[in-house]
Specification:
Layout: E1 2-7, H1 16-23, E2 28-34, H2 35-41, H3 44-47, E3 53-58, H4 63-76, E4 80-83, H5 89-98, E5 102-105, H6 109-112, H7 116-124, E6 127-131, H8 134-143, E7 153-154, E8 171-175, H9 186-193, H10 201-207, E9 210-214, H11 221-230, E10 237-239, H12 250-258, E11 262-263, H13 282-288, E12 294-296, H14 297-303, E13 308-310, H15 314-322, H16 326-356
Parallel strand pairs: 1-2, 1-4, 2-3, 4-5, 5-6, 6-7, 8-9, 8-11, 9-10, 12-13
Helix pairs in contact: 1-16, 5-7
């Protein structure tokens, strides 16, 4: 059987390897991606190979480009189309025009609720919705009064290829994703590690050979870099090199995560949406690379993945990581890798269930 995956926006291409893995070996898969993804961060598929996948990058500027995309997708003769981001009206109308069964991945329930064609395709049975975590499925079912409870699936985006081995020379604590002060508590990080931080935390990190690695570009990176230098934290907070686009390319990003010792999601309390109807990419990234992570108790109760729990402050989170013994760290790493394996198995079962609703059964 054949599946066509479409990622027509310039972001979220990192979930495509998980979608391919969720289909399994019985599928021939072609993916069409907006070339802005590759221009921004490089080719993710060079770093995370996916068997049975053919990748096409396309510039999608203007009506002729979309018509060519339609012709190429239909010429592939897919049994199902997977919209890797399915929440905007214009894309939903394009998907509708293909007149094929659809698996639609909804990242943000509130955005999807504003797209009438998304609702039409789900209600008609042409689309089986997919979300990226169990708490988002629960929010979807609440918002729809359980009307589609048997037709919604979850794909945990935890397939990042090989997990890697921690750097033996230092404890590298990764903060993944873009540097955006709204989505990550960078102010709390500077306060925790600065000269006035609690309990000499910066000195304790240095004594334990721990460093923070900022692995993204983003609107607040330059300011954060200046503030870290001004606070005397350049040795404790490192920044991954940027490509010409102002983003960290996948080669650098994945290499750093594969050498990581732990991951700090750094989710502020103000980001309630990450604990309700969206996900933070930091948590599936930790799982995908088998990295121990530390979460506040609210977030831990929502995501229910292996983690260290701590009080909500950044200082408490770092203290909890630094107090991990080598044995406890290794145990948590093994538990995280086991969770990843189970999630990949669940993903495949979920997608098989959803496509069976279209009468499709993989060999």
């Amino acid at each position: 059987m054949r599946a066509a995956i479409l990622q027509t926006g310039g972001v979220h291409e990192e979930i495509v390897p998980s979608l391919v893995a969720a289909l399994g070996p019985g599928w021939e898969v072609s993916a069409w991606l907006n070339d802005k993804c590759r221009a921004s961060k490089g080719d993710i598929f060079a770093e995370v190979p996916s068997p049975n996948l053919t990748v096409h990058y396309r510039a999608l500027d203007g009506h002729p480009a979309w018509e060519t995309l339609r012709e190429d997708v239909l010429a592939f003769r897919p049994d199902v189309v997977i919209a890797a981001t399915f929440q905007r009206e214009s894309l939903a109308q394009f998907i509708d025009s293909l007149d094929l069964p659809v698996l639609g991945v909804i990242h943000n329930l509130r955005k999807a609720a504003q797209a009438p064609t998304v609702a039409k395709l789900i209600e008609s049975g042409r689309c089986q919705p997919i979300v990226l975590a169990e708490h988002v499925r629960a929010a979807f079912n609440r918002s729809s009064s359980g009307a589609f409870i048997d037709r919604i699936g979850v794909v945990d985006p935890v397939n990042w290829g090989l997990t890697g081995t921690p750097d033996p020379t230092c404890r590298r604590i990764a903060i993944p994703g873009g540097v955006n002060a709204t989505n990550r508590d960078f102010g709390g990080l500077l306060a925790a590690l600065g000269p006035g931080g609690p309990g000499g935390l910066g000195r304790k990190m240095a004594a334990k050979g721990a460093v923070i690695e900022i692995l993204g570009g983003g609107p607040d990176r330059a300011r954060l870099q200046c503030e870290a230098a001004d606070s005397g934290l350049s040795e404790l907070i490192r920044f991954a090199p940027l490509g010409a686009s102002g983003r960290v390319h996948y080669g650098e990003y994945l290499h750093a995560l594969r050498q990581g010792w732990a991951l700090l999601p750094l989710i502020p309390l103000s980001k309630g949406d990450y604990r309700d109807f969206k996900i933070t990419s930091a948590i599936p990234t930790a799982i995908g690379f088998g990295l121990p992570m530390v979460l506040d108790r609210w977030t831990a109760s929502v995501y229910r993945a292996p983690c260290v729990t701590s009080d909500v402050s950044v200082a408490a989170a770092l203290e909890a990581l630094l107090e991990l013994s080598e044995a406890d760290h290794n145990t948590l790493k093994l538990a995280t890798c086991a969770y990843r394996a189970a999630a990949l198995s669940r993903n495949r079962a979920e997608v098989a269930r959803l496509v069976s609703g279209f009468g499709l059964v993989a060999e």
